[in-house]
Amino acid sequence: MKKAIVVGATSGIGLELARILVSNGYRVGIAGRREERLRALQLEQPEAYCYRVIDVTDPFDVLLQLDALMDELQGMDLLVLSSGTGDLHEVLELGIEQRTIDTNVLGFTRVVDWAFDRFQTLGAGSLVAITSVAGLRGSRHSPSYGATKAYQIHYLQALRQLAAHRKLPLRIIDVRPGLVDTAMAKGDGLFWVASPQKAADQLYKGIQKGRAVVYVTKRWRYVACVLRALPAWVYHRL
Ligand SMILES: NC(=O)c1ccc[n+]([C@@H]2O[C@H](COP(=O)([O-])OP(=O)(O)OC[C@H]3O[C@@H](n4cnc5c(N)ncnc54)[C@H](OP(=O)(O)O)[C@@H]3O)[C@@H](O)[C@H]2O)c1
Fold first, then answer.
1. Ligand 1 pocket, 65 CB below 6 A?
2. pLDDT given at position 98
3. What global pTM score does this model have?
4. Is the minimum distance from the CB of 107 to ligand 1 under 6 angstroms?
């Protein structure tokens, strides 16, 4: 039986992905801060899930809890990091930036470094992290969110290169959603908003196909191309 850990499985894309993994025969270790939601998900199929309360901003406990989850699963083939945070704010406020950086940069780095290290020891594995199309270009609507997602995209590229350099058979997968109908989709005039189920389904299929970068939904790949191609003088006027 294959084993997966999903960090950020209490709601949204992570929750739906955990369900898809279980329906495809995985035993899944789920994590997040809201214990009642972890317990509720486990109750859906008690033998298929185990859980740990994990706050990725806690520098020490997160590593202990991840090790405990992996021990309980007796291995790990796949780790998915879905935890993330971000706010819309055009007023620059250090408190908001710090909260975003703590989760999306420091918390992200703790979890993916742990997974890379464990997969290296195990000799194989797939490491998936959910970044964002918002990481492709800075945005005045949410300066730290876009910047932290850019960090994640670059960090995953670095891990992919490191794995290749060390000849490790690890798969490092960067999933870039556009807009998904969860608490993270904020603001007015949202378009092409996918359901969390559809996003998780495409994410799972992307993992199966062995893609290094997966856009969710697929049409966001075209937005990504436009975002990258827009000259700065046009982009700055948006
Ligand atoms: N929805 C979108 O439109 C969209 C677009 C692009 C990218 N994304 C990315 O997709 C990922 C999943 O978000 P979502 O849309 O599914 O929203 P969501 O339902 O709000 O899920 C966010 C998850 O992150 C977890 N989390 C937040 N802070 C955490 C912390 N300190 N420690 C551990 N877990 C933490 C939450 O669990 P607890 O609160 O229980 O800890 C929750 O399970 C995020 O990385 C987000 O940036 C979303």
1. no
2. 96
3. 0.97
4. yes
